[in-house]
Design a protein that fits this description.
The complex is a heterodimer of chains A (358) and B (308). Chain A is mainly alpha-helical and 358 residues long. Chain A has 14 helices and 4 strands. Chain A has a single domain (46-254, 265-353), classed as Orthogonal Bundle (ABC transporter involved in vitamin B12 uptake, BtuC), CATH 1.10.3470. Chain A has helices at residues 13-16, 23-43, 46-72, 80-97, 103-122, 131-150, 178-200, 203-213, 215-220, 225-252, 262-275, 280-307, 314-335, 340-353, and strands at residues 163-164, 169-170, 173-174, 254-255. In chain A, a hairpin with a 2-residue loop joins β2 (169-170) and β3. Chain A is globular. With 308 residues, chain B is mainly alpha-helical. The longest helix of chain B has 31 residues, at 2-32. Classes of the chains: A mainly alpha (358), B mainly alpha (308). At the A-B interface, α6, α9, α11 and α13 of A face α4, α9 and α12 of B.
Amino acid sequence: MFYRENGQFKTSYQADQQIFPIMQDRWFIAALLLLAFVGVPFIASDYMFSAILIPFVIMAMAALGVNILVGYCGQISLGSGAFMAVGAYGAYNFFARIPGMPLIPTLILGGLCATVFGILFGLPSLRVRGLYLAVATLAAQFFADWMFLRIKWFTLDTPSGSVSVSNLQVFGMPIESDLSKYLFCLSLLCVVALLAKNLVRGAIGREWMAIRDMDVAAAVIGIRPMYAKLSAFAVSSFIIGMAGALWAFIYLGSWEPSAFSVDQSFRLLFMVIIGGMGSIMGGFLGAAFIVVLPIFLNQFLPVFAAWFGFVISTTVVSHAELMIFGALIVWFLIVEPHGLARLWAIGKQKMRVWPFPY
Amino acid sequence: MGFFLETLLGGLMAGMLYSLVALGFVLIFKASGVFNFAQGAMVLFAALAMARFSEWLNASGLGNLWLVNLIAFAMAAGVMFCVAWVIERLVLRQLVNQEGTTLLMATLGITYFLEGLGQSLFGSDIYKIDIGMPKEPVMAFESTFPGGILINQEDLIAALIAACLVALLSLFFQKTSTGRALRAVADDHQAAQSIGIPLNRIWVIVWCVAGVVALVAGMIWGSKLGVQFSLATVALRALPVVILGGLTSVPGAIIGGLIIGVGEKLSEVYLGPYVGGGIEIWFAYVLALLFLLVRPQGLFGEKIIDRV
C-alpha cells in the first residue's frame, strides 16, 4: 500500500540495473541525503556533532569495510582495529614527513598502507578458514599494537607512540569546526558507500559471495579463491584504513596506539553482526547502534536509578554499561540473528502488502 | 647452557599455565561446537569469587589456611556451576543450530556481561589469593652445571597442579559414564541424541567443567599476579595455544601450551633485544600462524574434509 512498485515498468537494461530500481527508494535516499547534508547542520548541537554524528559517520565507513570482508566474502576478521591503526599511522607519516601534503591524498595513501598490510595478513586465509582464521587475524592486531608502540620510526620518535596532527584543510578550507568535520566525513562516506555498493553488485562482489557461500564449489566453477579472497582483504582494509585515518585525524586529533586496540576490532565486528552481514545498509545501522548505545546508557542509567531512589557512582555505571551491552548483544543474536538490516527488510515487506498480512 | 635451560624451564611452566586456560576452550568446543570467547571472563569471574570468599572467611575468624581455601574453592565452584547453568538456559539453548559466527558473537556478549557482573558483584580492586605457595626460588642441578639452574617453586607447584588437573580430566573422560557421554556428544551431536543422551544436560556439565578449569586457572594466575581485570586478557594469550594444538584436542592444548610457552620465552630472550622487546604477545600468534600454514587444522585437530 505504502510501498507499491506497481506500474513502475522497466523498459531498458539500464533501468533494470539501477542501484535503487524502485521510485520510493530513490525518493527516500534523496530525502535522507538532503536531511544529512542540509537538515542536520541546522538542528544538531555541538555535542551532537562531536559525540554522536562524527563517530557514527566514521564508524559507519569502517563497518562498511568490515562488512565487505566478513559479510560478503565470509572471512571472519578480528584484526580490523589493526587495519585502522595502519591507516592512521600510515597517513600520519605521509602527512608529517612530506611538507604541504594535502589531506585527501594523505587519507588515500593511508588507506593504501592498510591495503598492503591487509593483503599480507590475509594470506593465511588461503589456507585456514572459519574460527581458525578469526584467531589468525588477531595476529595482525597484536603485531600492529606492538609495531606502533615499539618501532619509533613510525611515530617520529615520540614517546609511547602518541602523535597529533593540526592545521587540516581541504582545497584551502580549514577543517576545524565540528560542522566542517562532519560534512567532510559525510561526503567521503557517501563516495565510499557508493563505490562499495557498486563493487558488491558487480562481478567481483558476486565472486566474493560465491566464496562466502562455499569456497570449494566456487573454485570448481572457475572462481579463483586466491584472487577473490585477497581482493576482498585489499578492498576491505583500504576502506577500514581510510576510516582509521579519519578517526585519528578528524575525530581524535592526537592519538596513541591504544586507540586502535583489540576492543575496537570487537566493536567493529559487533557493528557488522548486529547491523546485518552482507548488507551495506547493515553497516550503517550497526554503527549507529554501537555508537549510540553506550552514550545512551551513560546518560540515562543514573536517571533511571534516581527514579527508584538509588544514587549510583560512575564505576557502577560503567560496569552496568558493560553488562547491558553484553546482554543486549546476546538478546539481539537470539531474537534476530540476521541483524537490523533484516528487520528493515521485514518492515519494508509489511509496508508493501499492508493492509493484508501477506 | 644453564641460562638456556633456565629459560626453557620457565617457558615450559608458563606454557603449562596457558594450556590450563586453553583446556577450557577445547572442552567447550569439543562438546558443543561453541568457540567460547568468554573463557577469559570466566577465569576473571572465578578468581574474583574465590578471592572475595576467602577474604570473607578469613575475616569471619577461620584461621586455618587450607580450610579457608578449600571452602572458598568449593563456594567459587558453586558460583561457576550457577553461571554455567544460566548460560546454558538463557543463551545456548536459544541458539541451537545457529552458525559458528553467531555463537562466537554470543560468547563475546557473555564476556562483556561477565566482566561487568563480576566487577559489580565482587568489586574492581586488586585482590590477592593466598594458597600458601612458596615464593622463594630454589637452585637445582648444581652438580651438573656450574651455578645450577634457578627454579621458581611457585611455578613448579602451579605446573604440578595443572598436570594433576589434566590427569583428573582424562580419567573423568575415559572412565566415567558421564565422560563417555561427553565424548559421544563431541563425536556426533545427532548420533548421541538418537541413543538417548540429553544434549542440554551434557552442555551444562561441560560448561561446569570448563568453569572449574577456569577457577583453577584463575586461582593459579591470581596467586601469581593478583586478581585484577587484566586476568580476563589471559584468554587472548591462550588463543594461539588452542589453534596451534587444534580446537578439538585435549593433548593438543597441553602440547600447544608447552610449545607456545617455550617459544615465547626463548624469542623474548634471544630475539627480543634486536627488535625492541615486548614481542611475546604477537610472537605466539605468528608461531601459531606458521604452524597453521602447514597444518590448517592445528597439530592434533581433526582433519578438515571439504565436500561440495
